[in-house]
From TrEMBL:
Taxonomic source organism: Nannocystis punicea
Swiss-Prot/TrEMBL keywords: Oxidoreductase
Recorded family membership: Belongs to the nitroreductase family.
Record has Phosphoprotein as a keyword: no
The keyword Signal is assigned to this record: no
Pfam families associated with the record: Nitroreductase (PF00881)
Protein name listed in UniProt: Nitroreductase family protein
Segments forming domain Nitroreductase: 11-185
Amino acid sequence: MTITNPVIDCILSRSAAKYYDPAASLSDDQIRELVRIGTTAPTSFHLQNWRFIAVRTPEAKARLRPIAWNQPAITDAAVTFIIVGQLADSSVIPARLAPLVEAGIMPAKMVPEWEIPARDLYMDYPQRRRDEAIRTGTFGAAAMIYAARSLGLGSTPMIGFDAEAVHRAFGLGKEEVPVMLLSIGTERPGNWPQKPRRPVADVLDLV
Ligand SMILES: Cc1cc2nc3c(=O)[nH]c(=O)nc-3n(C[C@H](O)[C@H](O)[C@H](O)COP(=O)(O)O)c2cc1C
């Protein structure tokens, strides 16, 4: 049984782009819209522990490329996002939930019911705080990848960069982790189609 619809077609047709049209740009409003869509991805306790640095000027691209394995996508793609995850911090939860309470989605008395378990889950566990930063950034990036695809744009998630150098060169805070780079832009011909995957039977356990 195979299922098709436009969303699934978008997912199935995505591939990681290598070649971008260096003459094609995205407006700051288009970049904002991609990030707005990215931020509708789910995050643990609605922490929204992310930040997005849109590297889109020649100067900023020139700063990033040498500390990102000199990957051509960084200068060729319209924009490369530094997807920044922030270490999970339960103390931000009241502020993050306030708009839901104001909108009448969540009763105010539920706020501590989210904040206290989050404190117990994360605050004495540095690895969990970092894991959540990576998960959050990855979900956000994934939403942007598929949004880009639906708009006919290519994308490339990249781990080929010097994390410490990126941290320094783009002023990340001490509680911030560069999760990945994500180039997005108009493709030029020559990109590979999506690669074949391992068979479902090899990766799925039905229990
Ligand atoms: C976390 C992550 C890091 C990646 N890093 C790079 C990278 O630094 N440079 C690159 O060209 N591609 C990178 N890729 C792209 C992968 O090579 C690509 O997604 C994989 O080969 C599967 O191909 P497909 O995305 O076209 O299906 C990365 C992908 C992921 C998910």
